[in-house]
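Exercise 7.
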Amino acid sequence: MGTFVITKRQNGYYKYEFTSRKGKTIFVSNDFELRFECEDDIEVLRKAIDDVFFMKFKSKNGKFFFKIILKEKEIAVSRKYTTQLLLQKGIDEIVRTISKSEVLDFTVQDFAFPPAEDIFDNIP
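Solution. The predicted structure, written as tokens, is:
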């Protein structure tokens, strides 16, 4: 099953990626100013997956990729694939698993463990 991963870019904007069950990125969204806009866009994409158009391209170096179009608006761009068959497998995985995919939010910098100096400063 695929997973949506929300992260924050270096420029401060948010984005989400849709990754395969093996952890490979299938597509990356456009930038969003606010995190909740990512969540909203994910929900719109899930509900309208039957209305999505996958526009396929071939790059100058011979790699294949697609853009996800919804209501004449570009939603996301895929990673580059070496063959058309792999590209189609990526699209098939999106259509098959997007409605039941979980969302992981990695924008919060709360770490599960305390800083190392808090633990190791008291060791004699």
